[in-house]
Design goal:
CATH architecture of the largest domain: 2-Layer Sandwich
Number of strands: 14
Structural class: alpha+beta
Number of helices: 8
Helix content: 25-40%
Strand content: 25-35%
CATH superfamily of the largest domain: Glutamine synthetase/guanido kinase, catalytic domain
CATH class of the largest domain: Alpha Beta
Largest sheet: 9 strands, mixed
Length: 347
């Protein structure tokens, strides 16, 4: 009988940024199917999710892939439930209203490879600074690209696990990189991002390199911050062929700036300054091919006759993709109701 190692992965209750946690469950004769992953529990008092006197929290498996780094291993993404079986307050996945998987998401996850001894990105000389940013974006060569071995190993691990990674590239700042993941269905898009983050953290252990998800780890210095741009669409955006409808959807985001910023990642005021390819945090604007906008309308959407997707550029690198997706879906659906109502009036 085969013995499988199931790595149960979940998000803790730390604020303002949740962290990944995991532990291994050994299962004999495991089928490899999600439905055969049993519910499990953990000590929530050690993860800011329960008091010591009533510390059990439940782990509900929701997504599974092969573990590319372990023999007979699986990575199992879990939702955290309270003992009564209801979604725990820390459970952002439970907020997503996308039961028919009509929403498609593509997240562009940026991050820094970080030297834990110097507390600087890879590529920063000890006691000083590298050349100004410019030559590092999509770069090649030892003078410009730092940590490629880690990035390549992570890409291979993600692909072997079956994650839908659509690309990687070196980013604008020294030691900064990005991977992109796409999924049909908001929940699975979040699942895949979290599993990919988990794999990157674990590979970093091997090299003694930390992964810095903070949106502006170099503070006010003249270096780009890190985002997690959210590309999204639903049937309306993919098929409408109407600039007017696209603009109505974009306008629906204007009155709910604060609601979006609230879940778009901690310390985003340090990143969303109106500089370094960002819009100011308290402003809202959108435009075709505008990387300084809050929401960019991709040129590909226009070229397809206003059939495609939108990109919200405000979510930062440490944001929870579940909460980002949940908020975007809520806003887009509110715009659809308005569009349909106006269409009925015209008819």
């Amino acid at each position: 009988m085969s013995i499988a190692k199931l790595e149960y992965i979940w998000l803790d209750g730390y604020q303002p940024v949740q962290s990944l946690r995991s532990k291994t469950k050994i299962e004999k004769g495991f089928s490899g199917k999600l439905e055969d992953c049993p519910m499990w529990c953990f000590d929530g008092s050690s993860t800011e999710q329960a008091p010591g006197g009533s510390s059990d929290c439940l782990l509900k498996p929701v997504f599974i892939v092969k573990d590319p780094q372990r023999k007979n291993g699986y990575l199992v993404m879990c939702e955290v439930l309270s003992p009564d079986g209801k979604a725990h307050p820390s459970n952002g996945r439970a907020l997503i209203d996308d039961d028919d998987n009509d929403f498609w998401f593509g997240f562009e996850q940026e991050y820094f490879l970080w030297n834990p001894e110097t507390e600087k990105p890879l590529g920063f000389p000890e006691g000083g600074f590298p050349r100004p940013q410019g030559p590092y974006y999509c770069s090649v060569g030892a003078r410009n690209a730092y940590g490629r071995a880690i990035v390549e190993e992570h890409l291979d691990a993600c692909l072997e696990a079956g994650l839908n990674v659509e690309g990687i590239n070196a980013e604008v700042a020294t030691g900064q990189w990005e991977f992109q993941i796409f999924s049909k269905g908001a929940r699975e898009a979040g699942d895949q991002i979290w599993i990919a983050r988990y794999l990157l953290e674990r590979i970093g252990e091997k090299y003694g390199v930390a992964i810095n998800w903070h949106c502006k780890p170099l503070g006010n210095l003249d270096w780009n911050g890190s985002g997690m741009h959210a590309n999204f669409s639903n049937t309306v955006l993919r098929t409408c062929g109407s600039r007017e409808i696209y603009e109505k959807v974009c306008e629906a985001f204007r009155p709910v700036i604060s609601e979006h910023i609230e879940v778009y990642g901690a310390d985003n005021h340090l990143r969303l300054t109106g500089k370094h390819e960002t819009a100011a945090i308290n402003e809202f604007k959108y435009g075709v091919s505008d990387r300084g906008a809050s929401i960019r309308i991709p040129i590909g959407t226009v070229e397809r006759g206003w059939k495609g997707w939108l990109e919200d550029r405000r979510p930062n690198s440490a944001a929870d993709p579940y909460k980002v997706a949940a908020r975007i879906i809520k806003t887009v659906k509110s715009a659809e109701v308005e569009v349909l109502a106006e269409d009925l009036k015209v008819a």
